[in-house]
Amino acid sequence: MKIVWKRKKNATDETSPNPNPNLPFFERVKEEELIGEDEKNGVGGEDPPPDSGDHDQEKKLAETLESEGVRLAEGGLYNEALRKWEAAIMLTPEKAKLHEQKAQVLLEIGDAWSSLKAAARATELDPLWAEAWITLGRAQLNYGEPNIAMESFDKALAIKPNHEEALIDRETASHLVKRRKQSHSTINSRYEIRDKW
């Protein structure tokens, strides 16, 4: 596909003075020179064949960034790890593991909402991965949604029925739901409005 921007030529186009010759964006370039440069640089003309080498390089770079992120997170450098994983996600956005790792780090730094979004994306990409559902459940707990977190832990347990962490986290969520119900019933009974006129 070849795209050429055509300019209208007027009499002053070639001879108009340059307001500041030291600034490159004011230089006048002939249309033929632009077309020639584009073709030299591979812009215009036929579409180049897809290069699998570029894709392989991106994949390798994403793997390197992922492993650097893991190393940084293990060392407690969460913000640096997050930057590495975000760069890797830009290269391989469909990799659920990157989103799940990002969600874990976001939980560590206290960003529950962003963690929730990243974990939800991991479960969308790989709905049969129990660890992604566990991370989503933990993010939901930290966001203050124990009822929804229980559902996520249940999905993890449906995939891996005896997953120890999922069982413990589900019990924690269940306990929080019970405490919330008790506190709501206590508040409602204390402030009950009665008509005794």
TrEMBL record:
Keyword Zinc: no
Residue stretches of each TPR repeat: 130-163
Disordered: annotated segments: 1-59
InterPro entries in the cross-refs: TPR-containing (IPR052658), TPR-like_helical_dom_sf (IPR011990), TPR_2 (IPR013105), TPR_rpt (IPR019734)
Keywords: Repeat, TPR repeat
PANTHER family cross-referenced by the UniProt entry: OSMOSIS RESPONSIVE FACTOR, TETRATRICOPEPTIDE REPEAT PROTEIN 33
The protein's name in its UniProt record: Tetratricopeptide repeat protein 33
Organism: Iris pallida
